Structure prediction request, 652 residues.
Amino acid sequence: MPQSNNIKSKFSLFSTSRGNSELALIVSLLVVITIFSFMSEYFLTVRNLTNVLGQASIIMALAMGVAIVLISGEVDISVGSVVAAVAIPLVEIMNATDSLMLGIAGALALGLMIGAINGYLSAYLRINSLIVTLGTLFIIRGFVYLYTGKRPIADTGYLENFFQLGSGRFLDILPNPALVAGIIVIFFIFIMRHTRFGRRIYAVGSNAEVASLAGYNVRRLRFYCFIICSLLASVGGILLSSRLGSAIHTAGMGYEFQAIAAVVLGGVSLAGGIGSLFGVMLGVLILAFVSNGLGMINLPTEWQLVITGLVIIAAVALDAFKKKSR
Amino acid sequence: MPATESIKQITNPIKKILTSEVGFLVLSLLALIIGISSFSEQFLSAPNAVAILHQSSLVLIVAIGMTVLLISGEVDISVGANLAFSSCVVMAVINQTDSIALGALAGIAFGTSVGFINAFVTTVLKVNSLIGTIAMMMMLKGGVFLFTREAIQNHHQLPLFPKIATGFVLGIPVPALIASIVAIIGWVIMTRTKAGRLFLATGANQKATRLSGYSPERVKFAAFLLTGALTGLAAVILASLINAGQPTAGGGFELIVIAAVLLGGTSLMGGRGTILGTIFGVLILKIVDNGIILLRLNQDYQIIFPGIVLILALYMDQKRRGTTND
Prediction:
């Protein structure tokens, strides 16, 4: 009985959960900001707030992609390795051709290829996507180690626009990575809310059987989601690399966990079909502000990890509690 | 047509082996052994066999717990961080008390209490275990550095302590002996006792388990405690192996453990899996590891091959069953 199996499986490891309301997330974000503004005079400054947006931009790009894949009913945990992998063609091509655009094209091409492999294995061959991407997480990282010999590849051309991409500020206020992340967020919120493509992804995620009967090509839609996710992870990789000025073999390690945590905090269901990208954006921002605020009050970075973990558990537990009392 | 008859008779037993749970894994293992030994003479030697058993022990001990946990429909991502923290606890307590027994007990107790918190967060607070244990992983990674900034050395240089990892009993390495005992107990529990059937029942159908008068929460609680306790046990061996408590140990350990368990045929969705399969899963991964070293390949292949093996295994498993895994 593949059908009953399917339904059952969604209730075990990936139990369904309705999203946090976006209002609750906005309130939480404001509470976080208010608390830290009282605790540190430097927290509520334009400089610091825009800095946080810059720091959050990489996880933001990753989280958007992971959220879209989760909404379609699959999962992608290979994004952290993609971040490290795409920096290699980026820096190598830039060093060879002195062109940022060609480098970015190379990075995106690699991201596209990885997304297509993840998507083909998960959507077309129907191998469980958690395992596929767990596998590619290892495989990609392994090839990154092999290629780089576990040494950073430096940007030897010192391209001005590459430096500007990571460290410059738009209108002297907003860090460029934050601008890129902002454009991505707005674009994909629009896609998911107002286009037929977006609505189909929700349909596929909430009930693939019905979506398929309604004439949607479930496999192709999921395939596209994996490609989008990998491309967004590539953007994250490009941004990180431009901040670091090199391709570093350990870059992006553990980012998949941070992205998934932010996505779930933002109210996306692990079972698919439920969640909004606006909520995901709030989830990323809450975690970023918590981590920044704890840094501002001079708490050691280790405490930031501990408290972030607590925040995630508290948020998800509160959501589950609300659901039960409803 | 006698010719086709006899072919049928030959193919039938082969088919039977291929479609049995463990037969396929045994064949893969044999193929690996034959393949590697034809390229390396050292492979089929007693010292190498001992080395493989040694390397498999740590992963196997935790994998037994993870098998039971996955079968009951939950997952624990925090085992790697738990392993590192527990190993520091072991060493710190030994340094304080001068007693190996107390240190080992403290390590196992610490591991178990992490399992307890994971169980509480999952079954009482109703937080999805994937997210809850990711958060726990973050907290442990942060917490261990608050506990100790650097590796805790064996101050008293108790000569007996390193023997736990490097000693032999009747020619068998002690860690392998411990792992075998754990595996046998796990096998007996899962195949011969009511508890084992309860783990399977909970993962297969939580509602039906509840209707039959058993609490699925309590079953899952037990599975989390078991995983935590076994992680603590593995931490004792790890601390003894490096004769220190290393806060940065266990990176990526959770992924290796989960990969081995899944390779052994345990379902991510709960309700299906065997201890025997897990043993073969661990052995296959570790023999591949060992082969890479013996064949003098770049060690970075040690993370590429498990990824490929994992995806391939699941794909073949799925083909064999003629069902999709979702």
Strands of chain B lie at 152-153, 168-169, 172-173, 244-245. Chain B is about 75% helix and 0% strand. The mean pLDDT of chain B is 87.
